[in-house]
Amino acid sequence: RRPPRSTLFPSTTLFRSRPHRWEEAAVLEWAAKERPDSGVIHYWVGCLAQRGKNDAASRKAWLRAVQCEPKLAGAHRNLGYQWFFNERDSVKAWPHYKAALAAGETDPHLIEEAQFVLCHLGKLNERLALLQASYKRDPACDKLTRFLVCALCDTGRYAEAVKLMRTAEFSPWEGERTLAIRYAEAMTAMARLALRKARFDEAEKLYNQALEIPENLGHARSVLGNDAHVLYGLGLSAWMQGDASLADAYWERAA
Q1: How far apart are CA 95 and CA 214, in angstroms?
Q2: Closest C-alpha among 146, 185, 186 to residue 168
Q3: Within 13 Å and on the Cβ side, how many CA atoms surround 242?
């Protein structure tokens, strides 16, 4: 099933693609004068200014675009991107991302950027809800599923994160280690909870599972991986059960 077509790039009868040539710039200038209330025209004026790395001019054009057409998702997204990724201002960026999402836009790039902004703002539950809705709509989107795993871990929902990591199929990414790290994090977190409740067998099982990466995550264990936290937990479990020699052995390996 193909995902819905993105509407972040508003269509116009003026161009067959994004404007970039001098002739198209002239047409845009003329069109902006002829149709000053067209948000789409101002949107493309901003895109052309951004192509020339003129942030001030592009921001002015995109602000004019959303004044003309408040539901123009692409202009809101571009303003949000400028504020967050260029200016590092998540407070000013979020209203624009929120407006783009409210317009019904479901482009994966928009959702990826919006979840970064929410994370930066500390709105972890709102971020989680956004990614859960995205996963329900398109469970085959590999990148957003990875972000959903991270969001579940960041809100302490480790069992759900592990279930997702064990059932979803992830494509191999060169150099990607996020899922392996999150898997170990989730398993050790659940193991620590089991230790607090004196469920030692369960804790040891969880710690040992943290040392094995499921094949569906798309990558193997790194030779540079550090298992110190897991080994420390296994040692702690052994020590709490009165086996000091086994605990020392685990802690020596952890050190």
Answers
A1: 39
A2: 146
A3: 0
* Close Cβ partners of 197 (under 8 Å, ≥ 6 residues apart): none
Q: For residue range 9-66, what is the model confidence (pLDDT) as tens digits?
A: 565 444 444 555 556 778 888 888 889 999 999 999 998 888 888 899 999 999 999 9
Per-residue burial over 153-185, b if 16 or more Cβ lie within 10 Å, else e, is bbeeebebbbebbeebebeeeeeeeebbebbbb
Separation between Cα atoms, residue 255 and residue 250, nearest integer Å = 9
Residues 41 and 28: their CA atoms lie apart, in Å, by 7
Query: By the 8 A CB rule, do 195 and 229 touch?
Result: no
Task: Please name which of 201, 206, 180 lies closest in space to residue 191, comparing C-alpha atoms.
Answer: 206
Helix, strand, coil tally for the chain in percent (to 5): 70, 0, 30
Neighbours of 26 (CB within 10 A): 10
Residue-wise pLDDT for 94-112, tens only, equals 999 999 999 988 899 999 9
Q: Which residue has the tokens 């198209």?
A: 24
Identify residue 246 by its one-letter amino acid code: L
